[in-house]
Amino acid sequence: MAAHELKTFPGLRAKSYDSPAHHFHSPGSPGALCVNCHMPARKYMGIDARRDHAIRIPRPDLTVKIGTPNVCSGCHADRTPEWAADAIARWYGPDRRHEAHYGEVLAAGRAGQRGAEESLLNLARDSSEPAIVRATALERPPALRAREPSGERRGHAGPRPRGADRCRGQPRARSSRRARVARRPVARRSGARRPHRGGACALVRAVPIGSMPRSAGRPSGP
């Protein structure tokens, strides 16, 4: 492994990874391919297979704990997650990477466990985690909402953490702008430039349904 690769991925050790001593599968088999263990593919919209670019370490032990999917069971569908977790522990020993995973924090929140609020807040503030993970930590799981007094505000996480994506939530100052946009007729003539759907959704999603004209998609009836 080249020196620049170790600098790019500081968690990697200098050794041969394309070897049965690392992947414990027969050379040339699907289990020997790096992408199948660290970049598993999933189908989107029923046809497009796309690989996960998070490049994670297989963690069947998390499947045992919180029920998340794992690549080992994806290939060995006839085996249990416990079997896969035992194999990982046997192959890599007590020194294997076994760091805490954000999935455990999110699972604790969704289960309504006590102390989960603080863990979710710490996760949302952790700038080393992906923005989508931090944004998910800011969501109020139903199990935690059920313990709130009636009418309590949803903003449990306090001030917005720095660096979080602005894809979740928009300032209320833009409500009037959204209302104006919602009332504009959509251009239907040939060749007219259509607005980007994502941008349109961002503008109108917070408009109160009662302020929308029926031509903008307001449901009929009382």
What's this entry about, in short?
The protein has 222 residues and is mostly helical.
Structural features, described:
- This protein is mainly α and 222 residues long.
- Among the domains are: 24-92, no CATH class; 102-145, no CATH class.
- The protein is built from 12 helices and 2 strands; from the N terminus they run αααββααααααααα.
- The chain has a two-stranded antiparallel ribbon with strand order 1-2.
- A hairpin with a 3-residue loop joins strand 1 (41-44) and strand 2.
- Helix 4 (60-66) crosses helix 6 and helix 8 packs antiparallel against helix 9 (131-138).
- The longest helix has 12 residues, at 81-92.
List the helices and strands and how they pair.
Blueprint: H1 3-8, H2 20-23, H3 34-38, E1 41-44, E2 48-51, H4 60-66, H5 71-75, H6 81-92, H7 102-110, H8 116-125, H9 131-138, H10 142-145, H11 175-183, H12 197-204
Helix pairs in contact: 4-6, 7-8, 8-9
Q: What key attributes describe this structure?
A:
about 220 residues; mainly alpha; two-stranded antiparallel ribbon; 12 helices; 2 strands
Can you tell me the overall shape?
A: globular
Strand count, sense and barrel status of the largest sheet are:
2 strands, antiparallel
What is the helical fraction, as a range of percent? 25-40%
Mean pLDDT: 76
- Counting DSSP E segments of at least 2 residues, the number of strands comes to 2
> Helical region count?
12
Q: Return Rg in Å.
A: 24 Å
Low-pLDDT regions: 153-157, 167-175, 186-193
Record the strand order, biggest sheet.
Answer: 1-2
The topology string of helices and strands comes to HHHEEHHHHHHHHH
The end-to-end distance, rounded to whole angstroms, is 68 Å
Strand content: under 5%
Structural class: mainly alpha
